[in-house]
Specification:
The complex is a heterodimer of chains A (272) and B (296). Chain A is mostly helical and 272 residues long. Chain A contains 11 helices and no strands. With 296 residues, chain B is an all-alpha fold. Chain B folds into 2 domains: 1-61, no CATH class; 70-295, Orthogonal Bundle (MetI-like fold). Chain B has helices at 2-29, 49-59, 63-70, 72-105, 111-123, 126-137, 142-149, 163-188, 191-199, 204-215, 217-232, 236-241, 249-258, 263-295; strands spanning 32-33, 40-41. The chains are: A mainly alpha (272), B mainly alpha (296). At the A-B interface, helix 1, helix 3, helix 4, helix 5 and helix 6 of A face helix 1, helix 4, helix 5, helix 6 and helix 9 of B.
Amino acid sequence: MKRFTLFNATSLTLGFAFLYVPILILVIYSFNASRLVTVWAGFSTKWYGELLQNQQFLDAAWVTLKVGLISSSIATVLGTIAALVLVRGGKFRGRTLFSGMIYAPLVMPEVITGLSLLLLFIAAGVDRGVFTIVLAHATFSMCYVSVVVSSRLISFDQSIEEAAYDLGCTPFDAFKSVTLPIIAPAVISGWLLAFTLSLDDLVIASFTTGPAATTLPIKIYSAVRLGVSPEINALSTLLIGIVTIGVITASIATKRAAVHRKRQEELASQNN
Amino acid sequence: MRRAVVILIPYLWLVALFLVPFGIVLKISLSDIATAIPPYTPNFDFSAGWAGFKEFLSQLDFENFIWLTEDDLYWKAYLSSLKIAIISTILTLLAGFPIAYAMAQAPKEWQPTLMMLIILPFWTSFLIRVYAWMGILSTEGFLNQFLLWIGLIDSPLQILNTDWAVYIAIIYTYIPFMILPIYATLEKLDPSYLEAAEDLGCSRTQAFWSVTVPLSKPGVIAGCFLVFIPAVGEFVIPSLLGGSKTLMIGKVLWDEFFANRDWPVASAVAIILLLILVIPIVLFQKQQERQQEADS
């Protein structure tokens, strides 16, 4: 017995208005002809034009993309291994420390993670730039990947893996042909999460970068500290658009894959 | 053998890039400031081995920590971070609970879409979502224009650069972390409990307070931790929306490091921030474990 009352409808409407109206205002005013962001002076796309001619923003976008792609790929490999170790690794010395190191970065204030990594890079005498940001991002996002992948590993039927072993698979074969296909959706969403976390990060990147590498969030932060500007609105709109399309595509794809798998499972059970 | 290699790869990575850096922060927090690059005098020489370690112990100095307790800027910053985090957690709970409740009551076929609408803003840049409020809260911003237009106020309110702007932005950016765990517990709630309560003579409101609210407690607790813990160390929000009077420890650490270039004090601030957060983090972990046991 579900009751969907007026009160519920009101809280949903107000809640979603609160979540979406600020973003909507930002998007609408990126098409404003005036430089004054709060006064509407007609439709224009000139800020997008200026943005695309701003070499600094384009360079920063390229650095961000590079860091995001490399760090999320490293994070996915390490995070998946870490999840396997946590869920299937059994008991080994230092397991508590290991799971602590996986969960701690999830709740660690970014200023501390950033500061500690910077001090490490200085102590080790590493030149700071794209390489150090990649290391920093891979480290904190591997923890998110491993949480996503381990929840999938916990929930699937382990007897399928055991069957593979009984049929003579080596652990690596069993992983490749049984475990990996089953956890693949979780691995992919882990990668996506790592990638967005990297694109989004301001604090850790500010600490770990050198003079040579400026990421988009660092560039945006130094621009918006001076106040609201239409170019930043245009840039934000582009980023929001890309992310929205990406998330919606991904969710439709996973839904289709789930339907497809269900159909195959039904077919398989009919054939038996 | 193979298994050991597999375990060692992520293990060593995390030791090198998570554990060791903390050791360095701890070490530098016990060092003296120097006007050099790097701007601190290392008080511990790793290459000197055991003798060096003994010498390090004899020279240990807590002057940075003592200095932190003497300068009341830091006390105020810690207390004010806690205050801002507590108030915004309560406000987020008050705003998030009705939304989570309404989501759980909504028709089953809407629920996946509603979930996605809650998660979607989380995927868009945090920085951009905070920035969006700069244009809304400023004195000539949309909120003031709207309030003047409906005649609720006569002159624009100063909201940007005050603690209120910080509260609003924390609620805005962290509310998905509050809604999702509460929704997860409410969605599992068996409606026959509520029917039973009503059969026993409870009004709907009574049933809500004596059945729904207690049963949603695990979700409420998880949500509060997920908002409170990151809010304490928040940097972007107070830096963009807070005023000169808004003291938050994340911002103090940042300024100490980037503006004053006092690395030992910045490290000492980091260590104390961590000590403050250890208690809520451990409590949260315990609560999650209990919850998992209860579920299985």
